[in-house]
Every structure is written in C-alpha cells, then in structure tokens.
Fold this protein.
Amino acid sequence: MGNPFHDPARIPSARTETFVHLPRKKEPNPADEPHPSWPTHSQMGNPYPPGIEPVVIEYAEPGSNCLPRPLDEAKIPGPGKGLVVTGDYLYQRPHEDWPRLKLRLAPQRPDETDAQYASYRAGIERHTAAHIFGLYVCQKLCTFLGHFLTCPQGECRRRGLCCGCRDEERYWLPILIYPPCVPLDLEITETYRQEIGATFRRLKANAPFSSSERPIKAARPAHASSRSCASGRG
C-alpha cells in the first residue's frame, strides 16, 4: 500500500505537477538602517561607519587656542628622531596573527643600568603591542564594514580583507592603529577608537588571552623603570 499522502491513485485531487518556489524576499534588517537620531557624516563631511554610534565633537571656534580642533594632517607629529628602531621584541612578543609595528627606543643613557634600560624597553614593548592589537581590531572592523571593496590598496582588494597599515616613518604610534581607509578626521577616528575600546573591554571580561598572547613573564625584568613607556625618556 502506498503512502496516502504521496499516492495520487488514493487521493484523486492530489497534484502531480512540479512546483516552482520563488525565492523568499529578503526582510529588511533594522541594523542596516541609520539610527534616526545619529548624524550620517562628520562635520568634515566624512561618512560615519554604519551601525556604530558616532562621536560628535564640539570644536573650538576658528582662531581659538582652545581644544579640540579638527585634525590637520600636515601638523600630525611623526615618530620622532634619534630613536633606535628595531623589529625585535624581547619581553612582549605580539601574536603571530597580528600586524607588525617596529619598536622605537631611546638610546641607553650613560647613567642608566642595563636592568633599568631593560625595564624601560619592556614598557615600550607593552605599549607598542597594545597599539598593534588596536590596529588588528580596527582592521577586523574595517573588513566587516567592507572597506576592502573600494580600498585604494590593491592587497586589501585581492585578499578580500583589510590588511593596510599607515606609514610608520610618517605617523606616530596613536595614529597607526587606524588603517589608511579610515579618514584622519577626529570625529571618525574617535568613533572607531570607541568601538576598539569596547572590544578590549569585551575581550577582557569574556575571553582571556591565550598563552601565546600573554606577556613573556620569564623574560620581563623585575627592576623599576626610570622612564615613561609612552615617551622616549622619563
């Protein structure tokens, strides 16, 4: 006995023709729509990244010495001169999947012991590695936003992801966390920085670093540093 639900002889009204199913119409995603109260462009005319709450800055009046002011790319400082530049990390090795940035170290002073200089270098390495991870997160964010589709850098288009870095010889470390596809517009960079910071907090709360991403404690000096990790000399 055939299956009554599939046997036309038992169900005279059963239909035997082939049905053509039309593709289901894509439902609109609310996340794709701009927030009604969010501006779509910065005051400099650059588009905000979609889906991220924009940072709006109240700039000082033109001619005023007060901050903040719009970024002037020609006035953005470079990495500094007279520094020792190296790609060798001794105390804080970045993860192998992260981008690479060079270390820029002040030369060791005559009155500075090897232990003091090692502690200073460890701080610089931690500081630089944190910015490398910021660049890594920003590249992932730009990939998600599809910047590589129209990126002027051919490698990003070929690989189908954001892998660009700004010129290390031109820009200082805080600017290097933004790939070239991010305009150097204070409101835009602060919007990205806000999202990078939120990612840091989420990872710290829910996903501790693996052993390969943790500091190399065995190689870290125990002596106090006489310098600041954010500058060449303390």
Q: What stands out?
A: Helices lie at 114-144, 154-159, 186-206. Residues 10-24, 209-226 have pLDDT under 50 and may be disordered. Strands lie at 84-86, 103-105.
